[in-house]
Structure formats: C-alpha cells, structure tokens
Amino acid sequence: MNTQEILDKQKKYLWPSHILYYTEPMPLDHGDGLYVWDVDNNKYLDFFAGILTTSVGHNNPKVTERVREQVGKIVHSSTLYPNENHVNLAEKLAQLTPGDLQTSYFTNSGTEADETAVILAKAYTGAQEIVALRHGYSGRSAIGMSLTGHSTWRIGGTQYPGIKHALNPYCYRCPLKLSPETCGAACAEDIEDIIRTTTSGRIAAFLAEPIQGVGGFITPPKEYFKIAVEIARHYGGLFICDEVQTGFGRTGDKWFGIEHWDVEPDIMTMAKGIANGFPMGNTITTPEIAESLVKQGATISTFGGNPVSTAAALATIETMEEEANPTHVAAVGKRLRDGLDKLGEKYPLIGDVRGMGLMQGIEMVKDRETKEPAPQEVVALFEETRRRGLLIGKGGLFGNVIRIAPPLTATEAHIDEALEILDHAMATVQEGS
Ligand SMILES: Cc1ncc(COP(=O)(O)O)c(C=O)c1O
Question: Is the per-residue pLDDT at 180 higher than 90?
C-alpha cells in the first residue's frame, strides 16, 4: 500500500482521536538500528524511539532471534501456567532494581502497571487517597487519566475519586516563582499541604515520575524526592515510582531514574523500553507489600508475562548490558547535552535545555524574558527536521517542548548527525519566527 491508501483507511477505520505526527503523516515500513524507512523509502534517523521504547534499536538481531525462537515454541499460555521466561525476567529485574524491590507482576502497558501499583498501595496501607503531581502522565485508563496532571490527556473529564495533584518541581516555570538555586525544593512541601487540607490525612501513596516524560522532560532538583517521599511516608503513603520512561538506563549512569535522587521506592512501575516494543508493563515491589494483595484475593492478566514479550525483554536487557549499558548512555548523553546546550546559546527560541542521559528536552519560547510558549515553532521544527531526515518527539503542557530520546544504542556518530540536522532546522525556524 502507498502512503495515501494507508492514510485513507486510517481515516475511515480508525478513531479520529488518534494523534498523527507531521502535517503529512508518514507510515513507517521498516527499521534497522537507529534508522527507519517510510513506505516511500525515505530514510530517517529515529531520535524518539517509538516514544522511548525501542531501547536497543529497530529490528535488533538479538531480540528478533530470541522472539523467533520463542514463537516457534509457544506463543501464549496465560499466567495459569508457570513459564521459564516469566520467572527469569522477574529474577533479572529483582537484580537490576534498587533496594528491596524483589517481586513482579507483569501486565501489558504502562497504564496497567500504574493501575496495578495503585491497587496494591491501597491494599497494603488500607488508605484510599493518592497524591500525584501536576504535569505528570500515568496512562489512558480511568485511574491513569485521573492520576495525570495534564488536561490534554484527561479526555471527557473522567474522574477517579481520591486523587490529588501537588505542585510540580518545574524549575523553569516555578509554580512558587522561586529560584532553583535557593528554593530548597519548597514545592515538595505542597505535598504536606495537599494531604492536610484535601485528604483524610492518611494516604495510600505518592506517585511520581523521576523525570516527567509527557510533561516535557521536567527534571526535579536534587533535594526534591528525599523531601517529597519523607512527607508521603509520614502520612502513611508508599512511594510509587513511575519509571515507564526513565527506566532501563535511559537517564545514564543508573539503571533506573530514581537512583539519581538516592531514594528507594516501595513500588516501581515500568513499561516502554523494557521489551524493545513488545507490549509489556511491570509493577515490582517488596515481598511484604506484595503479600498484602494476596490476602484480598487473586488477580489475573491473560497476556501478562507472555512468553514472547518476556523473551523480547530478556534479550533487550541482555543487549543493553552488552552494548548500551547506563555508562554508555551517560557518555553519549553528555555529548548530546553539550551539543544541545550549544544550540541553546545560539538560538533565542530555546528557553531551556533539560533532562538526563538520552532523555533530553528543549523548551521553546517566543521570548526568553516572558517565556511565552512557542508551540507553532515546534510544529515548524518538526517539519524542518523531518525534511532533513530526523525524527523527534514533543510534549509539555503547551506542546512547546521537543523531546529527544534515541535508542540507547546510539553512537557518537548518530548524536553528531542529529545535532547537525537540529542546528540547520533550528536556524530555519529561528529565521522565520
Ligand atoms: C510515565 C508514564 N507512565 C505511564 C504511561 C502509560 O503507558 P502506556 O501508554 O504503555 O499505557 C506512560 C506513557 O507514555 C508514561 O509516559
């Protein structure tokens, strides 16, 4: 099928609620490592990795091989029967995750992983209320949308009761109008205020992403999570750390984003990058917390721990360990960040550069003084980068943050290629603004 035929069918048979990137969306046909090709055989360097998901590159031979082998054995058995891949992946994750996180429950998406975490926290604490953060994103189910602090993604005003949103450590647009050098992460104290004024005084959990993904790669200050989690625990809450975007070395140096803040979660959720694109979510916790759910009864996920997805995840993690471990991510991430900082000095449209490792964001503004968001310029940058063969992502409440997150197997040469394209594209957009 050609592009037009695919777009025509998309329009006719798929809900219009689907968002497509670019004014003329391109169907992708195949990929190899960091590159993808559309059906018209145009080649692109992929610096969004299917929303931070193809961790070890497209069509990775080790993942493909392991999946092929598994498909030839058994594709599905349900969790009613134990499976070798399922238990081996759970063991691997117990080794990689920090603290006492030892026992896993696999599902099919980040949404389900977060939802499972909320159910578990309520079972363990006996409390009902949850504190999440403004600008956060937790998925598309009723609980997921209610946890989300971003109006774009709360369609229909769906409300799950008992979820409160505290101020967000968004230093570039500080909700308290303070300076990050001297504020002492004052926004974290809003969690206490929210608990004392809008809940029963006891919460089930505080849920947060180490770096907010959809929110626009918002990166909290160093002190933030220690203060925030201490407050949550003081009021009986567990800390649910959503590593759906930040997990698996994405932030460099550490396997999981929260390790940069030196805080141990009680429950951690993961998805996206875990299986290089095969559907998977996981909720990992301590044996004691997991035990609290079984007292309330059983829970089942037909596809959770699927033998093919778990084979893909095992091969993905193995490949990361061999070719794209957190040390590698930190090194290439630094090169990316240095290059973006240089672009920041060159183009007034760039208001802020932030993030860690291979999760770097550029917030674009019309004016550095007023910080007026520049979403139209982001749209223009998308078209310019596409024309030059580079795929990027976007996010942020105002749609004015460029999200740059290539597969973790990116090399210095890939980073340089992307930076050069971004430089030229930014020059064109700056000139036209
Ligand atoms: C931090 C975070 N949590 C949860 C989700 C939901 O994941 P999924 O789209 O796999 O349901 C996402 C998706 O973008 C996310 O970024």
Answer: no
Using one digit for the tens of pLDDT, what is the confidence trace for 205-220? 999 999 999 999 999 9
Structural tokens at position 336: 């990316």
| Superfamily for the 3-55+324-432 domain | Aspartate Aminotransferase, domain 1 (3.90.1150.10)
Q: pTM of this prediction?
A: 0.98
State which of 272, 282, 309, 394 you would mutate to test the pocket of ligand 1, scoring each by most atoms of that ligand within 8 A of its C-beta: 272
Measured from CB, residues less than 6 Å from any atom of ligand 1 are 109-111, 114, 137-139, 209, 213-214, 242, 244-245, 271
Report the alpha-carbon distance of residue 121 to residue 136 in Å, rounded: 19
Is residue 79 classed exposed, middle or buried when 0-12, 13-18 and 19+ CB atoms within 10 A define those classes? Answer: middle
- Number of C-alpha atoms within 13 angstroms, CB side, residue 355? 34
> Would you state the structure tokens that stand for residue 7, as one six-digit string?
């777009």
Between the CA of 86 and the centroid of ligand 1 the distance, in Å, is: 22
DSSP conformational letter for 33: B
Nearest CA to ligand 1 atom 8: 110
Predicted confidence at residue 159, as pLDDT, reads: 87
DSSP code, position 220: -
pLDDT single digits (tens) 38-89:
999 999 999 999 999 999 999 999 999 999 999 999 999 999 999 999 999 9
Show Cβ contacts of residue 381 under 8 Å, excluding neighbours closer than 6 positions.
Answer: 364, 392, 402, 425, 426, 429
Q: Give 6-38 pLDDT, tens digit per residue.
A: 999 999 999 999 999 999 999 999 999 999 999
CATH architecture of residue range(s) 64-323:
3-Layer(aba) Sandwich (3.40)
Amino acid identity, position 98? P
Where in the chain are the domains? 3-55+324-432, 64-323
Buried-state track 121-135, b at ≥16 Cβ within 10 A, e below 16: bbbbbebbbbbbbbb
